[in-house]
Amino acid sequence: MKHLSIMATALGLLLSTTAMAAPERQGPPKEAIEACASAKTGDSCSFSGRQGETIPGTCESKRDDKLVCAPENPPARN
């Protein structure tokens, strides 16, 4: 019975740790999509970055044919 209690506690800790982990973002941020909501391909655009900075770019069509503001100088990927 004691082992079952220990295993249940360990499982609970594991699940709570997993739930707290930040999910990986997939796709462009919503701000980049909203920046081109009423634009056409090739239009200039800008949106606010994570630290409030203005990120200039150009509206480009992506996989699902939605326009997104593609940054002029995209961040390097790790």
What would you note in describing this structure?
This protein is an alpha+beta fold and 78 residues long. The protein has a domain at 28-78. The protein has helices at 2-20, 30-34, and strands at 44-48, 54-61, 67-71. A 3-stranded antiparallel beta sheet has the order 1-2-3. β2 and β3 (67-71) form a beta hairpin.
Task: Please describe the structure with a list of short key phrases separated by commas or semicolons.
78 residues; globular; 31% helix; single chain; 3-stranded antiparallel beta sheet; alpha+beta; 2 helices
User: How many helical elements?
Assistant: 2
Shape estimate: globular
Ends: how far apart?
A: 47 Å
Question: Structural class of the secondary structure composition?
Answer: alpha+beta
% residues in beta strands: 15-25%
Q: Report the order of strands and helices.
A: HHEEE
The rounded Rg comes to 21 Å
Spatial ordering of strands, largest sheet? 1-2-3
- SS elements, strand count: 3
State the share of residues found in helices, binned by percent: 25-40%
